[in-house]
Design a protein that fits this description.
75% of the residues lie in helices and 1% in strands. By secondary structure, the protein is an all-alpha fold. It has one domain (43-365): Na+/H+ antiporter like fold.
């Protein structure tokens, strides 16, 4: 039986029919409509939960400590890969504008979790370089998700309207600035009011904020995922942060797993077969994206403007991994139908390559023979 995104193994379908005591017609009726619909809904909720969790883990106070250096690294680390990727795909490979925009957006991502874990193991997480990387990764997430929301909005209209695109960018920027401001006073106040309720169901208040901001983002013309991320940012600096992260991680394991599995199920790996002439260009594009992904982020490390002696190569290397954030970009691009199979797989390969290359590269550039800058004192 052929379904959207793949074919069910006949033996498996027959086994399910026996166990459920159903006929082939009943099995087909369920798996052709309700099951794909449920998976799509769970997948959509999963990406929202994942972005809410990323927002929660974005510590804006840490960002302010090395704000200028982090901002310069983040801006270059988002702009350079995006521009190089978009122009390269458009003019070298003649990829249509919308897929090129999606691929460029995917190149902007940075997975803060992977870098933080490796740097913690190396004992350099609290160094000047470590703090700059963490701050820049937070900004990368904010800027990248804003770009993603704008690109998806463009895809939904089917055309690139410069005026509308600039309007969306301004709306998205205002939305995120509001979230950062609300992080300072509304977030703590909101948590305090919920705690005063002394109700076992007070956790629903956080869920309502998540739903409301996701809905609000949609109302103003942005993607709901931006609202989910904003909700996480607002609550990220509150006393409830640790409890929320612990609780949301459980949801994330369930629903974001459905999202990642759906990405894999919809990824056509047959386009990787080099014996098929039509596939070779896709493999070349994947190689191009991997090079741009690495060069763009490493170059950004040299824009950490400071008079201090710091490991700029280490900073740039720490920005390389795309991880789960890159997969979110790839998955949403695939869900819109804007990505042809070759570009879809090329983006996934880029995410995989940068994720697996980053740990050994970080260990290499932060060699123990070259001590990192003085550790930042914790509060």
């Amino acid at each position: 039986m052929v379904l959207d995104g793949g074919e069910i193994n006949p033996s498996l379908s027959h086994l399910i029919e026996i166990l459920s005591n159903s006929t082939p017609e009943q099995f087909k009726a369920v798996f052709e409509e309700p099951v794909p619909l449920i998976i799509d809904e769970y997948s959509e909720f999963g990406v929202g939960v994942l972005l809410f969790l990323i927002g929660l883990e974005s510590d804006l106070k840490e960002l302010l400590k090395v704000g200028f250096q982090s901002a310069s690294v983040a801006i270059v680390g988002v702009t350079l890969p995006f521009v190089l990727g978009f122009l390269g795909l458009t003019y070298l490979f003649h990829v249509p504008t919308l897929p090129a925009l999606f691929a460029g957006a995917a190149l902007t991502a940075t997975s803060i979790g992977i870098t933080a874990k490796v740097m913690q193991d190396l004992g350099v997480l609290k160094s000047k370089e470590g703090q700059i990387i963490l701050g820049a990764a937070i900004l990368d997430d904010i800027l990248g998700i804003v770009i993603l929301a704008v690109v998806i909005s463009i895809v939904e209209t089917g055309e690139v309207d410069v005026v509308k695109a600039l309007t969306l960018i301004l709306i998205a920027a205002a939305f995120m600035i509001a979230a950062i401001v609300l992080n300072q006073f509304f977030g703590p106040w909101f948590v305090t009011q919920l705690e005063k309720l002394k109700s076992p169901n007070r956790g629903m208040g956080y869920f309502i904020l998540f739903i409301f901001l996701s809905f609000l983002a949609g109302v103003v013309g942005l993607e709901p995922i931006l609202g989910a991320f904003a909700a996480g940012l607002i609550l990220g600096g509150t006393t409830a942060r640790e409890r929320l992260v612990e609780a949301i991680e459980v949801l994330s394991v369930v629903f974001s797993t459905v999202f990642f599995v759906s990405i894999g199920a919809k990824t056509d790996l047959s386009v990787l077969n080099p014996s098929v002439p039509a596939n070779r260009e896709g493999l070349i594009i994947a190689g191009f994206l991997i090079i741009v992904a690495i060069v763009g982020k490493v170059s950004a490390g040299f824009f950490a403007f400071t008079d201090e002696k710091i490991n700029r190569l280490g900073i740039g290397t720490g920005m390389i991994p795309r991880g789960e954030v890159g997969l979110v970009f790839a998955g949403l691009g695939s869900a819109t139908g804007a990505l042809p199979p070759s570009i879809d797989v090329a983006i996934v390969l880029m995410v995989i390559a940068t994720t697996f290359l980053s740990p050994p590269l970080l260990r290499l550039v932060f060699d123990t023979s070259e001590s990192p800058s003085e550790l930042v004192q914790s509060d």
